[in-house]
Amino acid sequence: xxxxxxxxxxxxxxxxxxxxxxxxxxxxxxxxxxxxxxxxxxxxxxxxxxxxxxxxxxxxxxxxxxxxxxxxxxxxxxxxxxxxxxxxxxxxxxxxxxxxxxxxxxxxxxxxxxxxxxxxxxxxxxxxxxxxxxxxxxxxxxxxxxxxxxxxxxxxxxxxxxxxxxxxxxxxxxxxxxxxxxxxxxxxxxxxxxxxxxxxxxxxxxxxxxxxxxxxxxxxxxxxxxxxxxxxxxxxxxxxxxxxxxxxxxxxxxxxxxxxxxxxxxxxxxxxxxxxxxxxxxxxxxxxxxxxxxxxxxxxxx
Length: 302
Hints:
Layout: H1 2-23, E1 27-32, H2 38-56, E2 60-65, H3 69-78, E3 83-85, H4 88-97, E4 102-110, E5 116-124, E6 139-142, H5 148-162, H6 166-169, E7 172-175, H7 179-187, E8 193-198, H8 212-218, E9 227-232, E10 236-237, E11 240-244, H9 249-265, H10 267-274, E12 278-283, H11 290-300
Parallel strand pairs: 1-2, 1-3, 6-7, 6-8
Antiparallel strand pairs: 3-11, 4-11, 4-12, 5-8, 5-9, 5-10
Helix pairs in contact: 2-10, 3-4, 4-11, 5-11, 9-10
């Protein structure tokens, strides 16, 4: 009984200390996943940093564009980042290492009302590849080891259609340093098929309504007329906005309210951060990602 009382007192003290620390925060640290080039990521997130600073009175909002997904994952686990928007597999990576490290608060809603997206396979029209089975013996490009659509889902779902592991079905597989680089690798002939994230809705000539293909088409880095979609996954849960749990319930709730209002307060900023056409954010709980946590645990052991 005495030990329980001591443990309870220590827990309450730790929580109170954490909340006091959160209330006195002078710097808020935002992790930004790899995918686009660093310049574009920083430019798209600057308006968010400005809004956070004004809303919460932080002396400084620091933006950390990681070179790869794992940089953000490790920052959240190590307590050197306070907030990030993760892919579902990136969240699963954090959760499997420390289920209490971060709290998922919101996720994006697509224009069709869904809270999911797709992994799509893209190839050049000139390659002659029309579907994933016709890519046998070709080169497959992945985005990042912690990417849901750019690795975990294609790793586990493509073999269901080809009847063989990706390592044996394709001549080779390789990581290309993020989603944008993966699409550019197809454009430049370094791989034959690239798997990337996409809303999968809207017009292909616009790169659909959101996702990396949409981003690179919108800024003129690729011509969609040069590409063809050769594979599509099942629906994937949209990734969560996560807050470092140690910031406490009060700060977490305030951040959830802030982001929920962002699309109405500054639509251009919201669209810049999210890189496409979404309707807004909706609340999300950890169990929304159970299927991805289990898939990651089974496929790559966390």
